Amino acid sequence: MAAESHDVLIVGGGHNALVAATYLARAGLDVVVLERLDHVGGAAVSTPSFGGHDARLSRFSYLVSLMPDALIEELGLDLELRSRPTASYTPYDGGGLLVETDEGEATRASFRALTGSDAEHDAWQRFYADVATLADAVAPTLLGPLPHIGDVRDKVEMATWTDLVDEPIGRAIERRFANDLVRGVVGTDALIGTFASLHDRSLVQNRCFLYHLVGNGTGEWRVPVGGMGAVTGELERVARAAGAEIRTGCEVTAVDAGDDRVTVRGDGFEVTAGWMLSGVAPYVLAGLVGDRTPPPKPSGAQLKVNVLVSRLPRLRSGDDPAVAFAGTFHVNESMSQVEALHAAASRGEAPFASGELYCHTLTDRSILGPELAASDAQTLTWFGLHAPYENLPDESAGEAAYRQFVEALDAHLAEPLEPLILAVEHKTPAQVEAALNMPGGHIFHGDLQWPWLEEGEKPHTPAERWGVATSHPRVLLCGSGARRGGAVSGLAGHHAAHALLDFIEA
Ligand SMILES: Cc1cc2nc3c(=O)[nH]c(=O)nc-3n(C[C@H](O)[C@H](O)[C@H](O)COP(=O)(O)OP(=O)(O)OC[C@H]3O[C@@H](n4cnc5c(N)ncnc54)[C@H](O)[C@@H]3O)c2cc1C
Fold first, then answer.
1. What's the confidence (pLDDT) of residue 2?
2. Residue 485's domain spans which residues?
3. Whose CA is nearest to atom 47 of ligand 1?
4. Does residue 436 lie within any of the structural domains?
5. Which residues sit with their C-beta closer than 6 Å to ligand 1?
6. How far apart are CA 445 and CA 60, in angstroms?
7. Does the pLDDT of residue 1 top 70, yes or no?
8. How confident is the model over 132-150, as pLDDT tens digits?
């Protein structure tokens, strides 16, 4: 069979691949995207997840922070990312800690009710003012080649750098906050999608924390109106309009990465191109190319639960559920709880559920059909922490973990959740892996990396300058596994396209 030929082929049709395809097609290149599923978007999709119920919920990823507003504008995406009035709510015995998005008197009063004074809230404000200086230093670099570590560090107080970058973040959290619950609310941003102790010496939790706080310089997580499917829908629209060809149902099973061309094969097709961008995880790419020394297989550690309820449950604290569930609703996430859970999960145990809930429909009801939208129905999305791939090997382990989630939430409710549930779906890391070919169900394709060049690191090629290099000169990463790729950001796609255009121009 004679292989058809293109300028660029992209393996995997996740949201990052669509960003890359748009830039390259706009630059006049002939681009084809090959996606194994019957739709594009990867982990950034909306689906009718609830059987006969007319609701299209974001099935995997659900909030957007890291996609730069400048990227959205440059691509011409017609997207609405809506702010939520509540940043977070954390129920405890006898009350709930409320943090407003625009922090005001209610937030201060809430800290006072929990801790008995204003000291913890003052510490909170000082801490996040310091975090903002690092976010302000990193955010403007995200759409350019990798900055040097010194260029970022020079813009931040040394003490802040030590707290957030040099030392395990658990140390700063324990030194700067006295209350276990407050420590946990701060610390969980370091743990979403990351299986680590807050004191882990690898600092993978610090990198995760930075990614959660740096988006657009504010770290605000906004609700995509219409769900994640709306984000992918817009990306697909602009990619096709630019002239990129998108083929679904095309699983690539082998890649022959030569020095001047790349050829890929699948069932009944063979495609060759001058360049290949890989939108799949580096571990998957290594398997396709047949690398002798593949990277270690990543391991995800989250339990995802999507629930449709007939109405929001009443809270034991007596607080208004429409306020409490509007932001991130933390459950069993005090610092001592997440640390204990991490230690137990590392031993292969799963003693209790810890994680956070979010209600999409309090902010955007457009994902519901007319009948549900007119009712009191709401969607709840649970992201459970420290539920490693290895601990949840099969369907029954996922079911047990789901039961623990219901029990954990019930402890804070004035009524049981189950009678309110109209439909539910849950996914373990193994199920995420099976659905998306994300190895180990790791939501970022692998552990996050610092978004800068390390001391002494000298990039020699455009791919190295943009953080998208592989060991094959004609293959660039354009997915989450790229240097700054984790999350729904489009950054990896943007960087791969710009690296390739730099190569071509050179
Ligand atoms: C449960 C969950 C919750 C998350 N929540 C959030 C969130 O709220 N906000 C956020 O910013 N991020 C979140 N993330 C992370 C985020 O969704 C991902 O980092 C991001 O979507 C990855 O995008 P991507 O385009 O790089 O890759 P992917 O979305 O992984 O897309 C890769 C594509 O490649 C295809 N593919 C794989 N192998 C092949 C092959 N051999 N041939 C052809 N095609 C192939 C796959 O089918 C897939 O479509 C979450 C992820 C998960 C799983």
1. 61
2. 4-43+65-78+224-295+441-505
3. 436
4. no
5. 11-17, 34-37, 42-44, 60-64, 66, 251-252, 279-280, 284, 302, 304, 432, 436-438, 443-444, 479-480, 485-488, 492
6. 14
7. no
8. 999 999 999 999 999 999 9
